[in-house]
């Protein structure tokens, strides 16, 4: 899943080397924390959050077979 997120995000940003995905796994949920360069935040979020929503939709669909709830957080 981490690779999927990186594959989606890296072509969108100006600084692909600074894209980092951290995984926090708890009992009933997995949280993926996506961090990008401050200048790339607008590109990852998109107008009215459309790009972020699309990324989340793909990630959640890919993770639908897992028993745990998946969350994607976008941070600086």
Give a quick rundown of the structure.
Keywords: Cell shape, Cell wall biogenesis/degradation, Chaperone, Cytoplasm, RNA-binding. A hairpin with a 3-residue loop joins strand 1 (20-25) and strand 2.
Characterization of the model:
- There is one protein chain.
- The chain is of the alpha+beta class.
- Helices cover 34% and strands 26% of the residues.
- The protein has a single domain, classed as K homology (KH) domain (GMP Synthetase, Chain A, domain 3, 2-Layer Sandwich).
- Strands 1-2-3 form a 3-stranded mixed β-sheet.
- The relative contact order is 0.25.
- The mean pLDDT is 93.
- One of its GO terms (cellular component) is cytoplasm.
- Belongs to the KhpA RNA-binding protein family.
Find the count of extended strands (DSSP E, 2+ residues): 3
Helix content: 25-40%
Task: Report Rg.
Answer: 12 Å
How confident overall, as mean pLDDT? 93
N→C terminal distance? 20 Å
**What is the third-level CATH name, the topology?**
GMP Synthetase, Chain A, domain 3
Can you write the helix and strand succession as a string? HEEHHE
CATH architecture annotation name: 2-Layer Sandwich
Strand content: 25-35%
* Count of helix runs: 3
CATH class: Alpha Beta
Low-confidence stretches: none
Largest sheet: 3 strands, mixed
Look at the helices and sheets and give the structural class. alpha+beta
Strands ordered across the widest β-sheet: 1-2-3
Approximate shape: globular
